């Protein structure tokens, strides 16, 4: 079915093609068409039609963005009005009430990220808007994340189709793989967030759940077979230990970035896969240069240069030393100087030439791969954000990390726009810098965290009461009271004696 619809779309022209590019993302979440035909295929093919000059690129972008945003808005309204009624009707036996309430609370409080990142996967694009409406998420919050996610997703899909041209099927396969990776990362982030929250608020409950899982028959068999390996894995996944979950996540990120850098380096050296897209991307950029955008990109690119980063680091160093935070100063400069050494070494090993000088509108020299600006930007701004996060609120931390990520993306885009680097140069710089940043964060977060306390006792109180109360020391009484004769019935019995009644 997908191939049939794709061939039909590729045969369209003019307004009819734009209508299809608008309608399919619109119906994806509002009418659940996305379960049968992902809207990203139509948007991708719209970029292919723009590549063949059947429609204008600006018109395709407008149709795709507006269709994506409007479709999710309709899905939100449908979920808000009818979603609860559907799930409490015939479907109630398949959905547990407490699970539904928990999902609604999460989406109402923290669902903005799900709305934004859910754009990357077809299944989430279909479900998330309706679930957000059913959870009574504030419409202003939903609209902000919906507009941002829809605009970014539609623009990326259209440009991917435009740059792929006749190779749109390979681009569609790449988009689906990116969607699966994004879905896995989103699920992993949700699981880690939930695990960290439980460990922070109810640490004993976490240990209780782990003990119950370990007591099952399959787990017991595995424990007997691999006791040392499971012990090591448990220590690596402990969210309360500085050598636990946080260390594991940063090391996994470092390995992932190193793998990406190795793949990009192989593509550049062999001139395969992503490296073949570089000339097309460069031609697209040259065709869409404008005066005002050139001025902006010429200014933004300095945020990844040592001319700006070194003075900025010196200012931050003075402020940190004033507060006697020498440890942060050491890690800041270790990260920055290590990034410089790594990208210079990479340039010498790959020895890739830059784009033609005629396309260059900014001073640049030396080898191209990897981009030094991209490497420095992700390391420098990432470390600054992490160091300055201490003691901040959750909202302030989110804004700080988002600002750092935006600066890094703009620096990379400026290097391609100004003709100083190929696209794979910037991606290689991101991968190399991300790997080094993860290594530094591993050391920084590990040594900056206190050792975890001993395993806490369970949250519940014992069901039984003690059989007897602890012995109490009897009060000492005087041997005689004034006004009484010795030997009377009120006198205490002497040790070892017997009581006599009468004389």
TrEMBL record:
Compartmental location: Cell membrane
Region listing for Disordered, in residue ranges: 450-503
Main location: membrane
TM helices/strands, residue ranges: 6-24, 31-51, 57-78, 143-168, 174-195, 244-262, 302-322, 329-346, 373-391, 398-420, 426-445
Keywords recorded for this protein, A-Z: Cell membrane, Membrane, Transmembrane, Transmembrane helix
Keyword DNA repair carried by entry: no
Gene3D superfamilies for this protein: Phosphatidic acid phosphatase type 2/haloperoxidase
Domain Phosphatidic acid phosphatase type 2/haloperoxidase: 331-441
Basic and acidic residues: compositionally biased ranges: 457-484
Membrane topology: Multi-pass membrane protein
Coiled-coil regions, chain positions: none
Keyword Membrane: yes
Pfam families on file: PAP2, VTT_dom
Superkingdom field: Bacteria
SUPFAM superfamilies with a match to the protein in the record: Acid phosphatase/Vanadium-dependent haloperoxidase
Cleavable signal peptide: none
Cellular component terms (Gene Ontology): plasma membrane
Recorded family membership: Belongs to the DedA family.
Record PANTHER family: ALKALINE PHOSPHATASE LIKE PROTEIN, UNDECAPRENYL PHOSPHATE TRANSPORTER A
Name of the protein: Phosphatidic acid phosphatase type 2/haloperoxidase domain-containing protein
The organism of origin for this protein: Planosporangium mesophilum
């Amino acid at each position: 079915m997908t191939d049939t619809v794709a061939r039909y779309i590729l045969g369209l022209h003019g307004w009819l093609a734009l209508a299809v590019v608008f309608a399919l993302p619109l119906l994806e979440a509002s009418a659940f068409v996305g379960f049968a035909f992902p809207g990203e295929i139509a948007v991708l093919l719209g970029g292919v039609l723009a590549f063949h000059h059947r429609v204008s690129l600006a018109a395709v972008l407008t149709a795709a963005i507006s269709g994506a945003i409007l479709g999710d808005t309709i899905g939100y309204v449908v979920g808000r009005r009818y979603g609860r009624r559907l799930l409490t009707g015939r479907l109630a036996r398949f959905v547990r009430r407490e699970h539904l309430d928990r999902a609604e609370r999460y989406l109402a409080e923290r669902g903005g990220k799900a709305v934004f990142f859910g754009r990357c996967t077809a299944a989430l694009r279909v479900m998330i808007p309706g679930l957000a409406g059913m959870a009574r998420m504030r419409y202003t919050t939903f609209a902000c994340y919906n507009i941002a996610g829809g605009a970014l997703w539609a623009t990326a899909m259209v440009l991917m189709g435009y740059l792929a041209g006749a190779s749109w099927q390979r681009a569609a396969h790449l988009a689906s793989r990116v969607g699966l990776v994004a879905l896995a990362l989103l699920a992993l982030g949700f699981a880690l967030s939930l695990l960290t929250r439980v460990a922070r608020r109810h640490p004993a409950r976490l240990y209780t759940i782990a003990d119950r899982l370990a007591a099952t028959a399959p787990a017991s068999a595995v424990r007997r077979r691999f006791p040392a390996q499971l012990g090591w894995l448990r220590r690596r996944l402990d969210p309360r230990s500085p050598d636990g979950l946080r260390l594991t996540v940063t090391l996994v990120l470092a390995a992932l970035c190193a793998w990406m850098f190795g793949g990009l380096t192989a593509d550049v050296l062999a001139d395969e896969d992503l490296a073949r897209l570089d000339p097309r991307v460069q031609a697209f950029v040259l065709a869409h240069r404008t005066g005002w955008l050139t001025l902006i990109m010429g200014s933004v690119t300095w945020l990844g240069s040592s001319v700006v980063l070194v003075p900025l680091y010196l200012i931050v160093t003075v402020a940190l030393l004033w507060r006697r935070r020498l440890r942060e100063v050491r890690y800041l400069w270790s990260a920055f100087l290590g990034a410089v050494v790594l990208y210079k070494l990479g340039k010498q090993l790959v020895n890739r030439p830059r784009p033609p000088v005629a396309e260059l509108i900014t001073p640049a020299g030396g080898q191209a791969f990897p981009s030094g600006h991209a490497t420095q930007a992700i390391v420098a701004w990432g470390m600054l954000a992490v160091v300055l996060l201490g003691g901040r609120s959750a909202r302030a931390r989110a804004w700080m990390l988002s600002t750092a990520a935006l600066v890094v993306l703009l620096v990379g885009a400026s290097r391609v726009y100004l003709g100083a680097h190929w696209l794979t140069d910037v991606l290689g710089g991101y991968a190399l810098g991300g790997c080094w940043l993860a290594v530094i964060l591993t050391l920084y977060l590990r040594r900056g965290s206190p050792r975890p306390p001993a395993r806490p006792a369970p949250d519940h109180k014992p069901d039984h009461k003690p059989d007897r109360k602890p012995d109490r020391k009897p009060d000492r009484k005087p041997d005689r009271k004034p006004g009484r004769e010795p030997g009377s019935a009120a006198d205490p019995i002497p040790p070892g004696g017997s009581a006599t009644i009468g004389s």
